[in-house]
Specification:
The protein is about 40% helix and about 20% strand. By secondary structure, it is of the alpha+beta class. It has a 6-stranded antiparallel sheet with strand order 4-5-11-6-7-10. Mean pLDDT is about 90; it is low at about 1-35.
């Protein structure tokens, strides 16, 4: 290979890597260089139901937590989140992409020309997920339909049987993200370089489960946030914190006598929830790494 050819190949490699890091939108993107610079770690999140486990990448897990949280906020069952996740997995691989077939964009590949909203609207994950749920709520008996059929009625896809293949993974993550599966989510991440402000984490948490009573305690290693929650929302908030630990610099989460430690990795995988921590079923503690000074 000539020197000029080698230079072109190197340039293309850098371009592809950079493009991959830029895919996604808003605060729900986690594809940072920190994740790339984690040799030996199998980063991502795993949802376990019974003896079966299913894995998503970190950015996919963030989007899954958002989609699931919105279903709960709307008073919809976990089944709605399962349908939405299966749809987004098929349409965009659960990534907020700004391209697709014809004018399709976003998590659900919704089309501005078909009345889903403007491109800017659809690229907002909250808007697009709510738009999907608006349409799903119009489907009579959707909670009793097969996941594939409910998704197809909303999407009217040219591949009408494609959603069903994502059913098991979607159900596992929906169960964990809505708090139905206690300690059902585990995430493996690289070491936290810097944490977010307490206000940012509290605001994001409230966007998940609604208004929260919280207090922050400053420590040498960062900020420990204590949340008072309903028992129904406890595991939902705790597992939301795991799914979003990458973007907020969360290093430890405790709830209902169990603790997840970001640094507790064995053979490249996090060991998961361990017995310990004094938090009750109505309390969640989230420890955020010390923020770097700007």
């Amino acid at each position: 290979m000539s020197r000029r050819s080698r230079r072109i190949t190197a340039l293309l490699t850098v371009t592809v890597v950079c493009a991959g890091l830029l895919i996604g939108g808003g605060v729900w993107l986690v594809g940072t260089l920190r994740d790339v610079m984690a040799p030996g770690l199998s980063t991502g999140c795993t949802a376990t139901v019974g003896d079966r486990s299913y894995k998503l990448e970190l950015d996919q897990s963030e989007n899954a937590s958002l989609i699931s949280a919105l279903a709960v906020q709307r008073g919809m069952p976990a089944r709605a989140a399962s349908i939405a996740l299966a749809t987004a997995l098929q349409e965009s691989k659960l990534r907020n992409i700004d391209y697709g077939d014809l004018d399709s964009v976003g998590l659900f590949q919704q089309r501005p020309s078909q009345g889903w909203g403007s491109m800017e609207d659809i690229m907002d994950p909250v808007f697009s997920a709510n738009a999907f749920y608006d349409a799903l709520e119009q489907v009579s008996g959707y909670a009793d339909l097969p996941i594939n059929d409910a998704a197809q009625i909303v999407q009217r896809s040219g591949y009408p049987h494609a959603y069903g293949k994502h059913e098991q993974l979607s159900r596992a993550f929906a169960s964990a993200m809505t708090g139905q599966s206690r300690a059902g989510l585990n995430c493996t991440l690289p070491p936290a370089v810097s944490g977010s402000s307490a206000q940012d984490v509290i605001a994001a948490a409230e966007g998940t489960v609604g208004r929260l009573e919280a207090n922050a305690v400053e420590e040498e290693t960062g900020t420990k946030l204590h949340f008072e929650v309903s028992e129904a929302h406890g595991w939902m908030l705790a597992q939301w914190a795991l799914a979003n630990a990458g973007q907020f610099g969360i290093v430890e989460v405790s709830h209902a006598g169990q603790t997840w430690d970001r640094t507790a990795n064995v053979d490249g995988e996090n060991v998961g929830w361990q017995t310990g921590g004094s938090e009750t079923p109505s309390q969640v503690a989230i420890h955020v790494a010390l923020a770097q000074e700007s």
